[in-house]
Specification:
Structural class: alpha+beta
Helix content: 25-40%
Strand content: 15-25%
Catalytic activity: tRNA(Pro) + L-proline + ATP = L-prolyl-tRNA(Pro) + AMP + diphosphate
Protein name: Proline--tRNA ligase
Radius of gyration: 28 Å
Bound molecules: adenosine-5'-triphosphate, magnesium ion
Family: Belongs to the class-II aminoacyl-tRNA synthetase family. ProS type 1 subfamily.
Main location: cytoplasm
Number of helices: 17
InterPro entries: aa-tRNA-synt_IIb, aa-tRNA-synth_II, aa-tRNA-synth_II/BPL/LPL, Anticodon-bd, Anticodon-bd_dom_sf, Pro-tRNA-ligase_IIa, Pro-tRNA-synth_IIa_bac-type, Pro-tRNA-Synthase_IIa_type1
């Protein structure tokens, strides 16, 4: 490809709206252009990078037995009503109507569609397991689309869904994906860390996030410096190594088990939430330094999150005037009863937590406690232990002091269990002819976010430094003086030879000063630059410069192809 013909509109200035480096550089280097907030066009170089990332993902999914399909972006509301998510997904769901007034949404994720497909087509244990995936645009009406490709409203995701006969099968599928993800991000040339992301079981492995390490990352990660231990967790999720509070033996005022309207037994709650409420009853009370109280209900994250989203919208209104609440980052729902402020505690900013109601959850099954005062009724030990894990805290696995780093979530793997297969009725007949519910997992990678994360991690003040495996082109050939026929002739020759040998190369044939071409080459981030100047013409030695190290090397003309390959 000749740079004079390449659709590569570079910019000299940093666009004002771009806050993070990847956004700035992808705009400046001519990779992306904005169409609307969180919606981008990918120009030729970006598309080449995306296709490379996709290809790496494909190969690793296929290696684990994944089969690629393509599901519709437009999804009928009926399926979402069946799963219960139509009402609870919230404003992030792009909804639309057809000309007959029927409701649809643009897929933010595909559990409903894929589960409906599999329930229809898979009937026997012999047909399981299945690992189905696609690479496709996803739509999420993010509250704050920002940071360019890192948080878009239209973005490309690889999503794979596993269907197994039982939990043991799911465990195998999950491990396969864990390995596949590790290989994908390694092959993309990224420094990353898989972290525990489950708010429930500490040390649990029901879900992991894959974090690309970068200072601009939205997520805070704690990790054990001892490589052989390997513990790492998202701080948002890793609340504490302690599994719940312990009520004091003697309290000034004995705690009463409450039995108020709106409070329900474990069995009732199980029915209401559709998950084993016992898993949710890990209620913790604590008090932050600012003296505000919160209760967390641990357990099935998605069920909670779905409910929480709904609750949060109510709370935002209710608490709009509460001066202490800076930013609501999450909430917890008391496991009892329908959503209402009575049952809701709010977890705001790390420091700012607010108790909405003085009635609080229990740390015992089947019990609610009235008039609880955390400082008084719970041991100080518990209060201390329940705060978020921080750098310097002992590793929950081995005790070594934890370290902290920031990360960008580029992928997540998740054991869904029977959450969707049960409500949508995805069953199969086992070897004894018994009907059983399939056990599912879901596994996402943000393709476009991965591209941006690669830039966050690999750049300098001059521009992008693409990892070779995902670079849009590998080599740029730069003639120093475009008026010099000998230089242009030699550059052309080198370019053609490299291209004929299957090397991804561009020739900067523009009538520009060499300084401009060098600047653009650095900005775009080609891993190698070959300079063709007078010296090259006279001595037959070409200067090869490596973008990552800045090193240069003289390579004889006749050895150039072998050298850059
Ligand atoms: P986040 O916590 O950043 O909002 P998520 O947990 O909601 O992400 P998942 O539902 O786990 O995202 O989706 C799988 C992957 O899709 C994420 O790991 C991320 O790489 C990518 N992704 C999610 N939301 C976006 C977005 N708005 N823009 C770009 N990529 C995204
Ligand atoms: Mg999200
Ligand atoms: Mg996330
Ligand atoms: Mg996620």
């Amino acid at each position: 490809m000749r740079v004079s013909q390449l659709f590569l509109p570079t910019l000299r200035e940093v666009p004002a709206e771009a806050e993070v480096v990847s956004h700035q550089l992808l705009l400046r280097a001519g990779f992306i252009r904005k169409a609307a907030a969180g919606v981008y066009t990918f120009l030729p170089l970006a598309w080449r990078v995306i296709k490379k990332i996709e290809q790496i993902i494909r190969e690793e999914m296929d290696r684990q037995g994944g089969q690629e399909i393509m599901m519709p972006i437009i999804q009928p509301a009926e399926l979402w009503q069946e799963s219960g998510r139509w009402d609870v997904y919230g404003p992030e769901l792009f909804r639309l109507k057809d000309r007959h007034g029927r409701d649809f949404c643009l897929g933010p994720t595909h559990e409903e569609i894929v589960t409906a497909l599999v329930r229809q087509e898979v009937n026997s244990y012999r047909q399981l397991p299945q690992l189905l995936y696609q690479i496709q645009n996803k739509y999420r009406d993010e509250r704050r689309p920002r940071f360019g490709l890192l948080r878009g409203r239209e973005f490309i995701m690889k999503d794979l869904y596993s269907f197994d006969r039982d939990e043991a099968g799911l465990e195998i599928s999950y491990q396969k994906m864990y390995e596949a993800y590790t290989r994908v991000f390694t092959r993309c040339g990224l420094k990353f860390r898989p972290v525990e992301a489950d708010s429930g079981a500490i040390g649990g492995n029901d879900t992991h996030e894959f974090m690309v390490l970068a200072d601009s990352g939205e997520a805070l990660v704690v990790f054990c410096p001892d490589e052989s231990c390997g513990y790492a967790a998202n701080v948002e999720r890793a609340i504490s190594p302690v599994q719940g509070g312990v009520a004091r033996e003697e309290t000034p005022q004995p705690l009463k088990t409450m039995d108020t309207p709106g409070m329900h037994t474990v069995e009732q709650v199980t029915g209401y939430l559709g998950v084993d409420a016992r898993r949710l009853i890990k209620t913790i009370l604590y008090q932050t330094e600012k003296g505000v109280v919160a209760a967390l209900v641990r357990g099935d994250r998605e069920v909670n999150e779905v409910k929480l989203q709904k609750v949060l919208d109510v709370l935002r209104l209710e608490l709009a005037n509460a001066a202490t609440v800076k930013r609501i980052t999450g909430a917890a729902v008391g496991y009892a009863g329908p959503v209402g402020l009575q049952d809701v505690w709010l977890v705001a900013d790390e420091e700012v937590m607010l108790l909405v109601n003085a009635v609080t959850g229990a740390n015992r099954d089947d019990a609610h406690l009235a008039n609880v005062n955390p400082g008084r009724d719970f041991t100080p030990q518990v209060v201390a232990d329940i705060r978020k894990v921080r750098a310097g805290d002992p590793c929950p696995k081995c005790g070594a002091p934890l370290k902290e780093t920031r990360g960008i979530e580029v992928g997540q793997i998740f054991k869904l269990g029977d959450k969707y297969s049960r409500v949508l009725g995805a069953t199969y007949l086992d070897e004894h002819g018994q009907s059983r519910t399939m056990i599912m997992g879901c596994y996402g990678i943000g393709v476009t976010r991965t591209m941006a994360a690669a830039v966050e991690q690999n750049h300098d003040e001059n521009g992008i430094i693409w990892p070779v495996s995902i670079a849009p082109f590998h080599v740029v050939v730069v003639p120093v003086n475009h008026r010099d026929e000998q230089q242009m002739g030699l550059a052309e020759e080198v370019y053609r030879e490299l291209e004929a040998n299957g090397i991804e190369v561009v020739l900067d044939d523009r009538p520009e000063r060499v300084g401009v071409k060098f600047k653009d080459a650095d900005l775009v981030g080609y891993p190698m630059r070959i300079t063709v100047g007078n010296q090259a013409v006279q001595t037959g030695e070409l200067e090869v410069r490596y973008r990552a190290s800045g090193e240069t090397r003289l390579v004889p003309r006749e050895r150039i192809t072998g050298h850059v390959r």
